[in-house]
Amino acid sequence: MNSKVDAFLSTATKWQREMEKLRTIVLDCGLTEELKWGKPCYTFEGKNVVVIQGFKEYCALLFLKGSLLSNADGLLVKTGENTIVGRQARFTNVREVTDARAGLKAAIYEAIEVEKAGIKPAAREKAAIKVPAELQARLNKTAALKKAFQALTPGRQRGYIFYFSQPKQAKTREARIEKCVKDILAGRGLND
Does 58 fall in a domain? Predict the structure, then answer.
């Protein structure tokens, strides 16, 4: 047991009992306990296997390579529509955690085997991202902006493209682009 995780759990205002039960189950599987990203994280030979998470409506045990597990009992769900690898087991009370104990342990042991075997998720093909017409027009109009945008990392470019593409109205897309011009020229990403 890790004292940092003890402190985390003792100050948890929500899902404390559920997270403590999850902790007991995970530790019973022989994983090493750490505190990473401000959450209890459990590792095998230095590799992250599962993380205990607390959310507004549920607490969860996140399997970082959950998509590689068989999930025969359907306990694991995608964390979001764009999630590729991670899967969660979600709970809203201690009884649910207790009832899922056997399935959780089986999934944890399977996740450990995945780590032992060195299995990695298949590399995801990057889908071509459609640059909004308003952004393309602005880049074509301003050479310095085009050069600065192309110098950004692919992740920063995608972040901007996604942000600029969200609004339905062209006027709103143009306003977003205008608002971000200085940051792009300075080489900063959307959230830098």
Answer: yes
In this structure, the answer to whether residues 168 and 104 fall within a common structural domain is no
- Using alpha carbons only, how large is the chain's radius of gyration in Å? 22
Q: What are phi and psi of 172, to 5 degrees?
A: -70, -40
Distances (CA, A) of 129 to 23, 80, 161, 165: 41, 20, 8, 10
Q: Which domain holds residue 143?
A: 133-185
Angle at 187 between CA 80 and CA 137, to 5 degrees: 80
Is 124 inside any structural domain?
A: no
Residue 126 within any structural domain of the chain: no
Q: What is the pLDDT of residues 92-149, one digit of tens each?
A: 999 999 999 999 999 999 999 999 998 888 876 666 678 899 999 999 999 999 999 9
Q: What is the pTM of this model?
A: 0.67
The DSSP 8-state label assigned to residue 94 in this structure reads H
**Token pair of 93, please?**
């009370």
Per the DSSP assignment, residues forming a β-bridge with 88 are 62, 77
